[in-house]
What does this fold into?
Amino acid sequence: MQRNPLSIVQSVLFLFAGAFFLTCLAPFPGIAEELYYTYDIMHRLVRVQHGTATVIDRVYDNLGNQLSRTVSSAIPSNSPPNVPSVPAPADTQIDIDPAGVLLNWQSGDSDAGNVISYDIFFGETTSPDLITSGVRETQFTTHPLKALTTYYWQIVATDNHNGVTSGPLWSFTTGNTPPLAPVEPSPVANGLITPDNVFLSWSSTADPDMGDVVTYDVYFGTSPNPPLVASNLSAVSYPAGTLAPDTTFYWQVVARDNHGASTTGPVWSFTTINHQVQILTNTTYSSDTTLTKTGGPYVIAGSM
It folds into this structure.
């Protein structure tokens, strides 16, 4: 039986139109890109749409034979992000405070509306590790760093269309921060103490630089500018021993880190007292002597 060509075309057009009348759109599971499928009333696949990009249309005759397959692209042109630039700290800058460094850079995208995120690579080698990703701001603060160490960092910018631009490798070198000054002296400043078995002590002072080791030099004597009596102490105390009574002593502690940076504490002082028993009057009384309150106080030795 011979079909009218016009009838075939009409059937095809009817089926194609029916595809959009009974459209079934669903994202394809399991992958990041969304795929949408459209079927006609005969359950034949007539369109595949890749998100907002490539579209594949299929046309069938009324016998189910595919007459054509058309691929069209709606992919907009996309420029990758601008190369990250203008680093802070500046590239190869030295003597950076290691107590948490604020990294800054500039970037952007020539395509209006694009969203940029950043991956940050950071470490002590020229192939730094990825330490965080998906950062939307153009800044990041590191953890406290080691003193006198060179660090390398790199920024990789990615837009929401998967355009990627890697920035150059930058570096900076940390400086060294001296320890904090010693505090909380014992004996207390300007205090009065007994002169027996005296220990000087102070509160342990922190060092802002991660990993630094702090030791102490102690100056002690009767001069307001006391001499050095001990150095390189790891303990926060010094045994001064038994001291002379009725004397003012001065002391000072210098905190020093393992890179040679030091902080000198204030000069403290204390005064020893004379706590020995003093005999004011030595009188021998006969056994029939009456002692009165006004004649005291008394220290009685021997039997009554």
In short: Residues 42 and 171 are 64 Å apart (CA to CA).
